[in-house]
Amino acid sequence: MKKAFLWCTLLLWAQVCQSTTPYVQAGKLPTAELTTQLAQVEKKLQAEGFTVVGRHMPKGLPTHASLVVTDPAMLEAIRSIGGPSIIAAGIRVGVQSDGTVSYMNPNYWFRAYLRGSFKAGEIPAKSVQARLARTLGEGAGFGGDVAEADLANYRYMFGMERFDSPNSELSSHASFEEALKTVQDNLTNGVGNTSRVYEVVMADRKLAVFGVAMNDPGDGESAWMNKIGANHIAGMPYEIFIVGNKIFALYARYRIALAWPALGMGQFMGIINTPDAIRNTLSKVAGGVPPG
């Protein structure tokens, strides 16, 4: 009886402590121009039923890019869940000019972004994972290990932000329509030296998400990614999202840590000014007043 109890305890402990990684290594492409490689990967993803909604070629990172696709079943799950789950709409695949391909691990990112509603999106998440593996190949996971059970309430360390931290809110507008137009217009006009990578709008649910390229050579994404590891390109672009009449962007002490969970404290201190720089930039896109 004691042995049976022990085995049950160990099994439950193993399930609780099961970990996952943010990225999966895919099969390698022949070396070619980056645009050629992106076109090859796009074609594969489209053949598998994904819809390509954006290409991201960060300024200052000429050998790295990402593709963003959507999946119909996952979009329906997000529509049903509502709220900030809209941030999970973009499925990202990283491509490098040396032929390296990687993709976001749906089991990791959807647990973090859907949080307590992950069960409602688990079936399409597993489908996305299987189809990415079938289309692009499935190698080793990389980027750091995080316990699955921790992702719904993830933070890098004590005292740092979580998904729902108050400082993720950037601005508030009179209506969803006004908030949407503000972001669309500001990205079209390049406010804050930004540009639009993709957008997914569910107007009937008053939800929208945009991928934002931050192009400033001094504090844009390439400036800090070069310091902490551009091989995590499948973690980009950064998102700005709308729920109702409010505009949000996950604060970078959460969002960067989620995408680089194995980041050492020394590396994090090396980009200590980045979280506020990102918030300042995206506050301009949101039509808010950047904090002083």
Essential attributes:
292 residues, alpha+beta, TATA-Binding Protein, six-stranded antiparallel β-sheet, five-stranded antiparallel β-sheet, globular
Would you kindly provide a written description of the structure presented here, covering whatever features stand out?
There is one protein chain. The chain has 292 residues and is of the alpha+beta class. The protein has one domain: TT1751-like domain (TATA-Binding Protein, 2-Layer Sandwich). 39% of the residues lie in helices and 21% in strands. The chain has ten helices and 13 strands. It has helices at residues 2-16, 34-47, 72-81, 106-114, 118-136, 176-188, 221-228, 252-259, 265-270, 274-285, and strands spanning 19-20, 23-25, 51-56, 64-70, 91-96, 101-104, 141-142, 146-147, 169-172, 194-202, 207-214, 238-243, 246-248. The chain has a six-stranded antiparallel beta sheet with strand order 3-4-5-6-2-7. A five-stranded antiparallel beta sheet has the order 9-13-12-11-10, covered by helices on one side. Strands 1-8 form a two-stranded antiparallel sheet. A hairpin with a 4-residue loop joins β5 (91-96) and β6 (101-104). α3 (72-81) packs antiparallel against α5 and α4 (106-114) packs antiparallel against α5. The longest helix has 19 residues, at 118-136. The radius of gyration is 19 Å and the shape is globular. It starts with a helix and ends in a 7-residue tail after the last helix. 46% of the residues are buried. The model is unreliable at 1-16 (pLDDT under 50).
